[in-house]
Design goal:
The complex is a heterodimer of chains A (about 375) and B (about 1050). Chain A contains eleven helices and 14 strands. Chain A has about 375 residues and is α+β, with helices and mostly antiparallel strands. In chain A, strands 1, 2, 3, 4, 5 and 6 form a six-stranded mixed sheet that branches. A four-stranded antiparallel sheet of chain A has the order 10-9-11-12, sandwiched between helices. The two termini of chain A are about 40 Å apart. The relative contact order of chain A is 0.16. The longest helix of chain B has about 45 residues. In chain B, α2 packs across α3 and α22 crosses α26. Chain B has 28 helices and 38 strands. Chain B is globular, with a radius of gyration of 32 Å. With about 1050 residues, chain B is α+β, with helices and mostly antiparallel strands. In chain B, β32 and β33 form a beta hairpin. The chains are: A alpha+beta (about 375), B alpha+beta (about 1050). Chains A and B meet through β1, β3 and α11 of A and β1, β2, β3 and α10 of B. β1 of chain A pairs parallel with β1 of chain B.
């Protein structure tokens, strides 16, 4: 348990024998048509149940449950806060209007993740929350291109600015309800996405630089991520083009790129990547926000010993059976069927393939966003 | 990717739970989303006596009783609803016609919805409170129906439905439910009782239209009222606010700037650019007001209508300081609204400018003055009203300005607009639309202000009721009581039920075993007596003194034990806490407690045993207090003296009985105590008080009833011991209740309050006033003596008193201990303990003291009695401070009215004999204005404004009629020297020395006092006229 606690990576390895690992690896790395243990296609996600607005006291909330029983709840609360101008801005006088006051500040979004069995300062929750927060506050819409919504100029950070002296502070509380059976990042990210979609802020009644004053009617509260006009919604286009980012977990096994990996699949992955995407233009093109590599747990697995090197098996097999072959994905020599821990490193073309699969029109990213949009917010 | 949403529709409980979601902004700037869950129920009764279903399902209390049903089984019918009807008013109907709902002639059997009540609370707290008290009374049969909690009538807000629409829908839903419910119940009962109609009253046209579609009977308020008898009178009572807005359509010329939005005001207030305070109009000049704000130690001036921006005296306003070039000095001119705006026509809106020519002229002259070089008239910061926090509007007593009714006033029932002149000069005239203008002339009437729009020069209000003919005793007394918000209705039955059942036969129990004797000391053998004004019935206090064996004396103050009869939190206690104090008018007393207690059971009448709360001291012959003791007791007063009789008895050397001796001792001690108090720096203040002894016969001169208060030694005897008792009790109570003790403080007045007076004294008399401490002030006041003018000292004391703040009740936790100080009495701590019959504060202090000394009450478990939470206590303090002040004002106004009436009676008598020459008296100039002076007449305790025309110049006949004198004003000029406080009045073009009159501040002048009828526009009004004759 202690070593699990320290884990910052996806290293909750299932206890699989080297032979099992090797079997998994081989079937997943079959060129073009990997065979996944649960029979999914490489880009297929596991089914999930999702609902939003489950916590009436929050500004926005969502729950997502995966079929394997893992569940997460996210609640978003917003609070009005005075913008503290930094001393150097004050010193610089009139001209130096604080950038924080106009374009927002990343620290205005706070995220806390609670995972059963982990303390809140353990590496895993801290790493996860920082990874998700980073893409949230990093998603900046260029105001100049004309396609972006005026309200979302400056991204989430900009949306939180009320006026030069006041801003919203957003608290995102993520609660994983079950033991982390697989690496929880996709679940938490999707739930957070959904919760942010349903988040509303009270309607501002004051104007300009006045102290903020809000309408007391919750019905007229406005979405944090504004909806497009109804017209667009009915015409079948995405009703909302600025979306909170989604972080997807992608693994590569051999040349294959596999989405929504299960625990076993992660255990044999060559590389584990967290890819954050968002959509911020009307055209609906996805935008890549960040890619982070995650320490692959396959690194820590026990290696298997080829028969040729096994003293017990000496002479029992033909030497031709375990001739080392060059693995095309990693460029290393391996004996087929004999598990060797992955040493990390992934080919440029594989990563390019991953990103392409996520970002392309009709790709995985779009599919995920559409799927989440299908969850009726309200 | 597939996602599935959890389905809730299969949950059978879902429909029973609803929630109410709203956003709450807290004072600290937090914004919270609040969710309240509602669990809908089906056992909320319809409360109609017709219903046969609800009695079986209505929830019952612990004894199995259900709340009695309210709505009558035979509700009144109208022409339109012959079978009777229940009313379901919408919020806007209540906003526009609360006075109608309170009217006793109509509007019975009303169903008030919870939705409506809450909406009303958000819109108008005073109306909400009035509605609550209506619901509480049984006569009007108002039923509060909790429609939001009942499953059938709860309405869920539809998507994109506004709150307003949703609430309107809720009202209609209730109406149709009632209809259905009563119909079903009638069918089930098989009784052929006819089902009353359910009538929704709403002023929302959209809602009426929708009601028609939903087959719900809905009428607008005015349509409904038109169908009632006496509709003309009732129609006048509908508020003008909504109507005016509707009918006008395009808004005409906007006279006033718009108020800032709430958020703008809040931003400004927090940033310190704007200030908040109560708008206070000057009694001498209706165009000048001041607002005291915490940021500055002097009040800010607000000059003119533009700057006052529709604020009315008493409103809580937000103001902005004007640039320095617009600062002005306070006006030195008397400006009456009546005089300046005499010719305004209430109907014409178009021609009027917000500042009329006359007003502008009046202002200009002030500005000129402000730019003068003198020190006192130095320009002061001025401000303008930019926002309104809270209106302080109430109901105003006034009369219809006969000049504004138009020629055809008497002729018809046509609705016309008239001006109502409020009695309170600080309130502007109110424009009222009425159909009964002809009838209302010459009546005291009650009106209220509904709105003051930007395009209207005067506020708009509506008529509520008539109090009766002007100048009749009943009408004027009621007017006074209403104006000072005195509760004068008879005590309701619930209060009288709290009285002891024995009534006047109640006696102190004979057997000492009786529980009434628990914790009481038997002091019946002490020689106790009471000293009060003549004819006093509610005797609060009695005294005794006796020599102890050790050479010291025991002195006792015995106070009526009111807290024995008034138990905390019963109906009587609540009523008393609302009334706060007994109000004494010349010929009427409005009691705080029912008659039975005040004048009999509690009153320490002589020769009978009474419960008392006693404070006993052991004092040395030099009046040093050795120890003090508090106890509940039983006493028997030996005698009830009046001040005069007590004085006579003490002075009579032939009286040597023990009682007299004891009084002599008391007098001796009181003199020592008094001296000690003055040595400590207590102030001897003066207020212009006269006493009216109204019981003399009719034949004599009524003016002989008017007496200035004589100060006998016996007065101060009682006063000294009451002060001592109050101080002793205060420290005891504070010891036990460091947070919740009810105390009384008199804040040290800021020195700048005295600036004017100091200036005036040094200029005119070369005297100095040291205001550094109360002691210094006391001794410097003693030095302000004019050997030729014995009244001068009193005059200065009166003026000094006006510079001070008023004393107030507070709860110990509200201030730091050094702030407890009573400035006037120079005591570090003070409270009121000695008059529980007539002051609620004393009653509370009694309870606190009882608890402090461990008195357990009759049944032994009333240890902590009364109020023990600070918040509640602070509410009570606020109320009793307010009531206390109002009672004083009402008392003074009553005396003033009486003096006026006495003068009038005298005048009429004299007129019968040929001449009405008024009465010659001495007066003193209190204030000098540019166009008049304020004169104080000690004989009658009145002060009055003397205008230009009321100066009798040498060689001129003194007695002229009012109208003749008014003519004079235009021919006169004045020379006013604000630095020297002098005014010279003379005929235009005749500046010879001997043809004019000079007056100066503090000057003694001969005046002629008479009561005159105002003529012309102010017909029917009467004022005391003071002529300066030399």
């Amino acid at each position: 348990m202690s070593n699990q606690r320290q884990a910052s990576s996806a290293s909750q390895t299932p206890h699989l024998s080297p032979a099992e690992l090797s079997y998994l690896y081989t079937s997943l790395s079959l060129p073009k048509s990997p065979i996944r243990p649960d029979g999914r296609s490489p880009t297929q996600f596991r089914p999930l149940t999702a609902e939003s607005n489950i916590l009436p006291g929050t500004n926005g909330s969502a729950r997502i449950g995966f079929a394997d029983g893992t569940q997460a709840i996210v609640g978003v609360k917003a609070e009005v806060e005075k913008t503290v101008l930094s001393t150097d801005t004050l010193a610089s006088g009139e001209g130096g209007e604080s950038t924080a006051a106009t374009s927002g500040h990343g620290s205005w979004v706070q995220m806390s993740i609670e995972i059963p069995g982990f303390r809140d300062d353990d590496a895993l929750p801290v790493f996860l929350s920082e990874m998700m927060r980073e893409s949230l506050v990093g998603a900046v819409v260029e105001g100049g291109d004309g396609g972006g919504d005026v309200m979302m100029a400056g991204g989430l950070k900009g949306r939180l600015v009320i006026n030069k002296r006041w801003h919203w502070r957003l608290y995102i509380d993520v609660l994983l309800l079950s033991q982390p059976l697989s690496y929880p990042l996709p679940l938490l990210s999707l739930t957070t996405h959904l919760a942010l979609l349903s988040t509303k802020l009270p309607k501002l009644k004051s104007q300009g630089e006045e102290d903020p004053f809000f309408d007391d009617d919750w019905e007229v509260a406005e979405y944090l991520y504004p909806r497009g006009s109804k017209l667009k919604a009915t015409s079948g286009l995405a009703s909302q083009y600025v979306r909170p980012p989604v972080t997807l977990l992608v693994v590569s096994v051999g040349e294959n790129v596999i989405f929504d990996p299960s625990r076993e699949e992660i255990a044999v992955a060559d590389a584990v990547l967290a890819i954050s995407v968002t959509r911020d233009t009307e055209a609906g093109n996805l935008k890549l926000l960040s890619i982070r590599t995650i320490d692959p747990p396959s690194r820590l697995t026990q290696p298997a010993v080829p028969n040729s090197e096994n003293v017990n098996m000496l002479g029992a097999t033909a030497p031709t059976e375990d001739i080392a072959v060059l693995n095309p994905a990693t460029g290393e020599e391996e004996v087929p069927g004999v598990w060797r821990p992955r040493r990390g490193g992934v080919k440029r073309s594989v990563i390019a393939n991953m990103i392409k699969t996520v970002l392309k029109k009709g790709g995985v990213g779009e599919e995920v966003l559409e799927g989440l949009e299908g969850v009726e917010v309200e | 990717m597939k996602s599935l949403r959890r389905d809730l529709s299969s949950n059978p409980q879902a429909s029973n739970v609803a929630s109410k979601v709203f956003v709450r902004s807290t004072k600290s700037g937090k914004v919270q989303k609040i969710v309240r869950e509602l669990y809908l129920r089906q056992d909320i009764p319809c409360s109609s006596k017709l219903c046969s279903l609800c009695p079986s399902i209505a929830p019952s209390d612990a004894n199995g009783n259900i709340a009695p049903f309210v709505l009558s089984d035979r509700p009144a019918g109208t022409k339109a609803f012959p079978r009777g009807h229940y009313l379901v008013p919408d919020t806007n109907a209540l906003l526009n016609g609360m006075d109608l709902f309170e009217h006793t002639g109509a509007f019975y059997d009303v169903i008030i919805l919870q939705t409506v009540l809450e909406e009303l609370r958000n819109q108008s707290l005073p109306l909400y409170n009035r509605l609550l008290s209506l619901i509480k009374t049984d006569e009007k049969r108002f039923y509060l129906f909790f429609n939001e909690f009942r499953l059938e009538t709860h309405v869920r807000r539809g998507p994109e439905e506004s709150i307003n629409d949703r609430n309107d829908r809720a009202v209609r839903a209730v109406a149709s439910w009632y209809e259905e419910h009563l119909g079903a119940s009638a069918k089930k009962g098989k009784k052929e009782k006819s089902v009353p109609a359910i009538v929704v009253i709403t002023d929302d046209k959209g809602s009426i239209k929708k009601a028609k579609a939903e087959k719900v009977t809905a009428l607008s308020l005015s349509d409904y009222v038109s169908g009632l008898e006496d509709s003309e009178k009732l129609l006048d009572m509908i508020s003008e606010a909504r109507e005016a807005r509707d009918s006008k359509g395009p808004i005409g010329q906007l006279f006033y700037p718009e108020y800032l939005s709430m958020s703008k005001m809040m931003t400004g207030l927090r940033a310190g650019n704007l200030h908040q305070g109560t708008f206070n109009v000057s009694p001498y000049n209706y165009l000048e007001a001041s607002v005291k704000v915490p940021a500055f130690n002097r009040p800010l001036l607000i000059l003119g209508r533009d700057n006052s921006n529709r604020a009315i005296s008493g409103d809580m306003v937000v103001i902005e300081v004007l640039p320095q070039d617009q600062w002005k000095s306070p006006s030195t001119k008397i400006v009456d609204e009546e005089a300046v705006t005499r010719n305004d026509n209430p109907d014409s809106e178009e021609t009027e400018a917000v500042v009329s020519q006359n007003e502008r002229k009046a202002l200009q002259e002030e500005v000129k003055k402000a730019h003068g070089k003198n020190a006192e008239g130095k320009p002061q910061p001025t401000a303008r009203v930019v926002g309104m926090i809270k209106r302080g509007w109430r109901q105003y007593v006034g009369h219809v300005d006969a000049g504004s009714t138009g020629s055809q006033a008497a002729s018809g029932r046509r609705q016309q607009t008239v001006f109502v002149l409020p009695m309170d000069k600080k309130v502007p005239k109110i424009r009222v639309r009425t159909r009964q203008a002809g009838d209302l002339i010459g009546q005291r009437i009650l009106v209220t202000i509904d709105t003051w729009d930007r395009d209207s020069r005067y506020p708009t209000g509506h008529f509520i009721r008539s109090l009766g003919e002007l100048e009749t005793k009943g009408a004027e007394t009621e007017a006074l009581l209403l104006e000072y918000d005195v509760q004068y209705k008879p005590f309701p039955k619930s209060v009288l039920d709290c009285l002891p059942s024995e009534g006047h036969d109640w006696k102190v129990p004979v057997s000492k075993e009786d529980k009434g004797w628990n914790g009481r000391r038997d002091l019946r053998d002490l020689l106790i007596c009471s000293i009060d004004p003549p004819g006093c019935q509610d005797i609060d206090d009695a005294l005794h003194a006796r020599k102890l064996p050790n050479g010291n004396f025991e002195v006792g103050v015995h106070i009526a034990d009111v807290s024995h009869f008034v138990k905390p939190n019963n109906a009587m206690d609540l009523e008393a806490s609302v009334r706060g104090t007994t109000v004494y008018l010349v010929d009427k007393r409005i009691d705080m407690l029912p008659h039975l207690l005040g004048t009999d059971l509690c009153s320490l009448k002589p020769y009978v045993e009474r419960y008392a709360f006693s404070v006993l001291w052991e004092v040395t012959p030099n009046a040093e207090i050795v120890k003090s003791d508090f106890t509940k007791s039983v006493i028997r007063s030996r005698e009830a003296f009046s001040y005069e009789r007590a004085q006579l008895r003490i002075d009579d050397p032939s009286q040597t009985d023990e009682l007299t001796e004891s009084m002599r001792n008391l007098l001796k001690f009181s003199k020592i105590l008094r001296q000690k108090r003055y040595d400590a720096g207590a102030l001897n203040l003066a207020s212009p008080e006269v006493r009216i002894e109204a019981d003399s016969d009719e034949v004599g001169d009524p003016l002989t009833d008017v007496k200035t208060k004589a100060m006998l030694d016996t007065n101060s005897l009682v006063e000294e011991f009451m002060l001592l008792a109050n101080i002793t009790v205060a420290s005891k109570v504070f010891d036990s209740f460091s947070q919740t003790a009810l105390l009384r403080r008199h804040a040290t007045p800021p020195p700048q309050n005295f600036e004017d007076l100091i200036n005036q004294l040094s200029k005119k008399r070369g005297m100095e006033l040291d205001v550094s401490s109360s002691g210094a002030l006391a001794s410097s006041l003693d030095r302000c003596v004019d050997p030729e003018n014995p009244f001068f000292n009193t005059l200065v004391r009166i003026l000094a008193t006006r510079c001070m703040t008023s004393a107030e009740y507070f709860c110990a936790g509200a201030h730091a201990e050094p702030e407890f100080r009573h400035y006037g009495l120079a005591s570090p701590i003070y409270t009121h303990f000695t008059s529980p019959i007539r002051r609620y504060a004393d009653l509370l202090v009694h309870r606190q003291l009882a608890s402090a000394i461990g008195y357990e009450g009759e049944d032994g478990h009333a240890v902590i009695e009364g109020v023990n939470t600070r918040g509640k206590l602070e509410d009570i303090c606020r109320n009793i401070n307010f009531r206390h002040r109002n009672a004083q004002f009402a008392g003074r106004a009553s005396i003033e009215y009486y003096v006026g009436q006495a003068l009038k009676a005298r005048g009429e008598k004299m007129a019968a004999g040929g001449t009405d020459s008024g009465i010659d008296e001495e007066g003193y100039v209190m204030r000098v204005f540019e166009n008049g002076v304020v004169v104080f007449v000690p004989r009658f305790g009145i002060e009055g404004v003397v205008r230009l025309e009321d100066f009798v110049l040498p060689g001129e006949a003194g007695s002229r009629s009012v109208s003749e004198r008014r003519e004079l004003a235009v021919h006169r000029t004045t020379h006013f020297d604000p630095e020297e406080y002098t005014l010279r009045v003379e005929e235009k073009g005749h500046s010879e020395k001997e043809r004019g009159v000079d007056v100066e501040l503090f000057q003694r002048v001969k005046v002629n006092v008479s009561s005159v009828k105002e003529e012309g526009r102010g017909a029917g009004k009467r004022r005391v006229r003071i002529l300066i004759t030399g």
